[in-house]
Amino acid sequence: QVQLVESGGGLVQAGGSLRLSCAASGRTFSNYFMAWFRQVPGKEREFVGHISRYGASIYYADSVKGRFTVSRDNAKNTGYLQMHSLHPEDTAVYYCAARSAYSRDPSRYASWGQGTPVTVSS
């Protein structure tokens, strides 16, 4: 499995921006679709966005469309989640995940990072 490590989380005021990174190792990163999920304690892990192997297809959850951007740099083995216009309800632990095909279902992913917390204050 590819190993993933997220970074870039933190505390930000409502309306602010953050960029999360997901560094991959152990396998050829471009072989994998990459997705971002988020989770609040007591709730299920929620799909945020997803990008195909070379970035030709990108999908977003309706709740983040127009505010978040998923991208990747295969030469750097790194994926990104750029977040703008953050709302307090975006507060969560954000995870990146990878698999060989597209899915919005977190149970279909075997490769996960450890998560990075994002807190948006009002």
Describe this structure in words.
A hairpin with a 6-residue loop joins strand 4 and strand 5 (46-51). By secondary structure, the chain is mainly β. Strands 2, 4, 5, 6, 9, 10 and 11 form a seven-stranded mixed beta sheet that branches. Strands 1-3-8-7 form a four-stranded antiparallel beta sheet, with no helix packed on it. The chain is globular. The protein has strands spanning 3-7, 10-13, 18-25, 33-39, 46-51, 58-60, 68-73, 78-83, 92-99, 111-112, 116-121. The protein contains no helices and eleven strands. The model has no long low-confidence stretch (mean pLDDT 96).
Task: Provide the fold topology.
Layout: E1 3-7, E2 10-13, E3 18-25, E4 33-39, E5 46-51, E6 58-60, E7 68-73, E8 78-83, E9 92-99, E10 111-112, E11 116-121
Parallel strand pairs: 2-11
Antiparallel strand pairs: 1-3, 3-8, 4-5, 4-9, 5-6, 7-8, 9-10, 9-11
Order of helices and strands: EEEEEEEEEEE
Distance between the termini: 39 Å
Q: How many helices does DSSP assign?
A: 0
Largest sheet entry: 7 strands, mixed
The average pLDDT value, as a whole number, equals 96
